[in-house]
Design brief:
Elements: E1 15-26, E2 32-41, E3 48-56, E4 62-71, E5 88-95, E6 100-111, H1 117-120, E7 123-124, E8 135-141, E9 144-150, H2 165-176, E10 187-188
Antiparallel strand pairs: 1-2, 2-6, 3-5, 3-8, 4-6, 7-10, 8-9
């Protein structure tokens, strides 16, 4: 007799998660240091391959001073990655079913003394707008792609619109006079409170 065994194996969409693991921590030179963790998981039974991109989408007035990435498992990463003009962290990485790969992303940024809360509070008006220390990672695999974000706010000096207190009083006076103010709905990203 011949016996056959069938295994129900499938190529599942890869999953990605991103979290802030430390910071933002103010440094002696006034910059802020922050670290993120990016995990790529294969929940299926079959081996897949993927490319991984990561973009530092910091708010206006926040300048990246340095950035680097490493693989916990020792996988090859792009030494030229900077999160701004070169977003590719890894290319053609093989991941077996049931496994998770972890990448550590670190960045240091300088925050302008005139930054507003709109630029610093991890809330945006669109998916392409930067805010706070927002970081977005995208995994591209055989059957699609997936994106995850993490954000931490930085201290802001000015009110949400960047106006002075004098301008705020003028605005309140205009409002009392019947001037209509338009409010733009803004998207709030999951955020980690500042550790320093």
């Amino acid at each position: 007799a011949v016996y056959c065994t069938f295994v129900n194996a499938y190529l599942a969409p890869l999953e990605i998660e991103k979290t802030v693991t430390s910071g933002p921590t103010k440094q002696a030179d006034g910059t802020f240091a922050i670290a993120y963790s990016v995990t790529v998981t294969n929940p299926g039974a079959l081996t897949d391959t993927y490319d991984l991109d990561d973009e530092l989408r910091f708010g206006s007035g926040i300048t990246v001073v340095s950035a680097g990435v490493s693989s916990v498992e020792g996988l090859p990463v792009n030494a030229g990655w900077d999160g701004l003009t070169d977003l590719r962290i890894a290319t053609g990485i093989t991941i077996d079913g049931g496994l998770t790969h972890t990448y550590d992303v670190k960045a240091t940024a300088r925050v302008s003394s005139t930054i507003t809360t709109d630029q610093a509070d991890c809330t945006t008006g669109s998916d392409t707008e930067g805010t706070g220390l927002l970081n977005a990672a995208t995994v591209l695999f055989t059957d699609g792609e997936a994106t995850a974000t993490a954000c931490a706010p930085v201290p802001a000096v000015l009110p949400p619109t960047g106006v002075t207190l004098t301008a705020l009083w003028v605005g309140l006076t205009m409002l009392a006079g019947g001037v209509i103010l338009f409010v733009i709905r803004r998207r709030r990203y999951p955020r980690t409170e500042s550790a320093a």
